[in-house]
Amino acid sequence: MIGGLAASVLGFFIRWDELAPLISTGGWKDIFSILMWHVFVGFTFSVISQMGFFAYLTVHQFGASMFRSFWNTVQFVIIAFVLFDLIYFRFQAFADKGESLLSYMGLAILLLAVGLIIAFYKAKQSNKSVFISALFFMVVVTVLEWLPVLQANETKWLYIMLFTLLPCNAFQLLALPKYNQRTSQKSGA
Question: How many domains does the chain have?
Fold first, then answer.
């Protein structure tokens, strides 16, 4: 539901230039079909988010058992590498479009800022040791889920997918303890 809602609202605002003429001419059927299309696209993005979350849970267990006390350091290095790649390689690949390096840095900084906020709440929710893992999920896994649109570099879809993935990923990360608690209560009853 989060993905469908986020993508439909974002799609409406981001694609306003395409929808405004339909609104002025009364093309409500077209507007409704475009809105429903965005809802289903959001559902698809939320499924991608769920797959990324389950993949992360698996990778996290392997990483924690392989690297033990160094796992947080490894995650931090990967976060830094992914953020660097998000800026540098995208800039190199799409430099001919005339965009400045700052525009590419903006998305990475935004992603990092949201990741830091969610990681802070996650650490506050459980314990401080999960901060780096939560940040890793919010930055690295979100970028991996976002890759198809990053490669296409279509500005409208960059924003629609990113701002659909972020609330989906944040919800999963912050809601996991509640689901674990419910499961343990049901199995203990």
Answer: 1
